[in-house]
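Running log. JK asked me to keep both predictions on one page so they can be read side by side. First protein, sequence followed by its tokens:
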Amino acid sequence: MPAKNSVKTYIENGYYHIYNRGVEKRNIFLDEQDYLVFLSYLKIYLTPNIEAIDAINKNNNLDNEDKNIKIHRLNELKNYSEKINLICYVLMPNHFHLELQQIGKKDIGNFMQSLIAKYTVYFNKKYKRVGSLFQGRYKAVLIFGKEYLINLSKYIHLNPLEILAQGQVLESYSWNSYPAYIQNIKIKWLKKDYILPYFHESKISYKDFVESENDSDKQISLELKKLLLDYDRV
């Protein structure tokens, strides 16, 4: 039988929880550069080409030849800025989680195939290895309802708690979208408006919602926990 959530239900305009880990539970991010490279691929794929090209042209640290090379390479890449809306993310040493919306029925499949293949090529070249980096295909859970959407963002943003040193605050973890949510950091390719407007009308802040431990109304739903049981404690 195929693993749970490996057989995916794709619908237009659907919301999804996407996650995967390293083969044999190995680390897929070994240093700061690895995290930065993965995030740079998200930025490249999710930023409209016209905006990325404009940024290149305005970069005074590049000469015309370098600008032309970068623009040429950019135009060769597939772009998903009108196909994928990334809501939140976290990169952990041996796994990652993404919460996103796809517009077309096949957009997630194409996006994840491009992202994972590109990062695997980078990783294998850097560390002089061959073969698969990730444990099979990514897992995908179709999300229904605003409550599930919001609770999932909390689950994703709480992931770093398991590796933070004593005394470190949650927002100090750089490799996730939580700092952007609570520090009002603008990232064009991150769609915070799917979550934050709810808290503009609420009596609690998003930070309080995520970091609360006692209020049962703010806990991750039992349904979400059950959906993740097959992940074998990444």
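And the second, directly underneath as requested:
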Amino acid sequence: MPSKNIIKTYSENGYYHVYNRGVEKRTIFTCSQDNSVFLGYVKEYLSPKDTDTLQNALGNPESSAFEKAEAIKLLRMNNFNTEIDLLAYCLMPNHFHFLIKQNNSWAMEKFMRSLGTRYVQYFNKHLSGRVGSLFQDTYKAVMVHSEEQLLHLTRYIHRNPFIKGVSLKESPQPSSLKNYLGEIHQEWVKPEELLSQFSKTGFNSYSSFVEDSALEEFSIQLIANLSIDYV
């Protein structure tokens, strides 16, 4: 029997909770550099590709060999800027979470395959001599069916790094929470649709929503059928 949520329903304009973990629950993000590289790949795939600038660099006789090689690499690289909206993310030492919307039926599959392959190549090179699989299996994904589930999934994802006694804002684990709190702006993260349901301050703010421990049991019950199988 296949692992939970490996078999996916691919739907145009569908919302999905996407996640994966390391094989044998091993650490897949060993240091801040690993986090930065992984998110750097996400940024490259989801940011608009400046084709004109890259073509100009390629055709410019003053461009160095390195600059031309980089331009060729970026021109050939897959880009999912118009196909994938990343609504929320969190990286933990041995797993990660995404909340995404795909704008055509197979965008998620292509995006996750490109990201996973590229990161495994980096990771194995980074840990010199390592070979083989890094992730336990193919990524898991489950479709989200209601706006309420979407909201509580962002809460679940952003609270994933929570350690008792440590503020969510102080967590060392990378996440999209600060985008939702207005503290940073990563153009490849799209919180606007969900933030429109909240006020900027007060009891109806997103900050209050994500920090309210009284919502924990309700959140768990609401997204029970979307929950991951290893936390």
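Observation for JK regarding the second prediction: The longest strand covers residues 84-92.
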